[in-house]
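2024-03-11 09:14:02 DEBUG pipeline.ingest accepted 1 chain
2024-03-11 09:14:02 DEBUG pipeline.ingest length=253
2024-03-11 09:14:03 DEBUG pipeline.predict start
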Amino acid sequence: MRIAVAGGTGTVGKYVVLAAEQAGHQVGVLSRRTGIDVRTGDGLDAALAGVDVVVDATNPSTTNGAKASAFFTEVSRRLQHVGAAQGVSRLVTVSIVGIDRVPGFGYYQAKQSQEGAALDGPLPVTIVRATQFHEFPAQILGHAHLGRIGVMPRMRVQSIAARTVGEVVVEVATAPPGEITVEVAGPEPADLVDLARAIASRPDHRMAVVPLRVPGRAGKAMRSGALLPRPGVRLAGPGFADWLNGEDLAAVG
């Protein structure tokens, strides 16, 4: 099978590429690094010629709601229409568990716009919703810090390894179409601050972590578990502690 991965150099996209290659599929990375702009369409027609399935694992460089929404909807529509013109059979879009349960948070509203734009196109779509990645607190610490002090929002999560999400996405992309939305989560719930402190206590990431109470309805929803999966969702390891002692943390930017 030929699979094209938009955002194939990102946190989860690189693991989609890896899992697809390990399963013996032909994989193309749709990225500006490879000369393809999925937002403007430059180089996209040729890149999707002969492709069976497109995976959208893109992410904008901003969390601003309006800007992120514009990015997501433009990319989804571009992949849908160019993909249909080139004979692609399906689109698989990577999204987030619980985004419809956190009111007033711009980035999550943008992800909902992405899902809507994807579902509105001519190609059949499967949306893979995953909980926050194990990598998420390290990524926040990499940006929200002053010296050796980092800030971390209070939120309940049931994090999952990005590598595992990549494997699930490939499994969904190569299986016969089924449910429109597939959800997957890590094995156990936790507080994001506690996960960040576990990372920050390691010799190579030594840092003090200060909890941040996100204001408003969105912050309250995050703290109260709106981003946790519903009962019956598929659970997949490794757990956070096992992941932390593995090799993937060193690759977190």
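2024-03-11 09:14:41 DEBUG pipeline.report Residues 2-251 form a domain with the Rossmann fold fold (CATH 3.40.50.720).
2024-03-11 09:14:41 DEBUG pipeline.predict end
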